[in-house]
Fold:
Amino acid sequence: MTVRPVPDASRPPRSDRPLRRESRLRALDGLRLIAALMVAAYHYGGRGGEVTRAWGSSAEDQFPTLHNYFAYGCLGVQVFFVISGFVICMSGWGRPLKSFFASRASRLLPAYWAAVLLVTAVFALPMVTYKALSPSDTLVNLTMLQYPLGVDRVLGVCWTLWAEVRFYALFALCVVLPGASRRRVILFCAGWTLAAAITQGAHQPLLDIVFMPEYAPFFIGGVGLYLVHRDRRDVLAWGIVAVSFLIGQHYAVRSLWNASDPNAFAHRTSLGIVLVVAFGFVAVAAIALGWFNWANRRWLTVAGALTYPFYLVHEHLGWVVIHALHISLGLPSAETFALTIASMLVLAWLLNRYVEKPLTPRLRAALSRVR
Structure:
């Protein structure tokens, strides 16, 4: 007769126990860079606006076929949000609030400050056709609160950082402060999903700012995928991911499907939008399940380190580089596009090497000492 051991009731459930120190998910770093390159393709060749002045004509003329595909690159932001949900849940699990705050602030601010000052300085040069913001507006931009304050933005992509900051605040208050556990994270995901749905129906600006229904499903889906990473048999976690995808694709299609607009730069199909959103969820799910553990390459860590500074500077400074290469030097569109991407990656490496690496640990240490 076999005697089975009685479970120890004092031990936390498997999905609540701290994970063993695991190797870095380098495939996630690679996915970050892919999402950033998607956004760059959108900004350089998938839309109108200021980039038209850089090219000297519409990007549709520069890329007659590819501009239709580049137009889907804006969905790289939604992929970023799914990744962010995964990473923030992973980094916040078992961490005190002060440490969580210090980690997030030190990760975001050094490169952000440098990017704001750099773009302002470049736009102030007499040979650059784009105008810098006023000193007052530039100073407000250093707070990262310019978007809700209605101040002109130095960096066009900073609206996504405002969404990230609100997610950090919600997660910190609801999960990190009381202490992360599977039950608490599931309640957080369910509560936020319901609050976002109510917000959509209530049409209240304050609720919309807090619960951001258009972006909430992507963050929540990423959090759910981290629960899957902890326990792939977690049915509730899979349910969170499924519901988040279903709601997220709805918002993406609603905001980006423009088939009825005759003046649209490019006409995205609803199926194409759904497929790109599905790519984001499936890619993070595959990494969460360990299917890409074989992709343990050091260069992917470098790619991940370059992603954030690249994302910050690529749009506005990319305009300057495109104009210099295509208009001033007369390089063809394809070469200009490739060289602009390459130059922004080099600049991102410089920002990472000379700004983030020296300042991030110092800022984190200083914030960790604050009482």
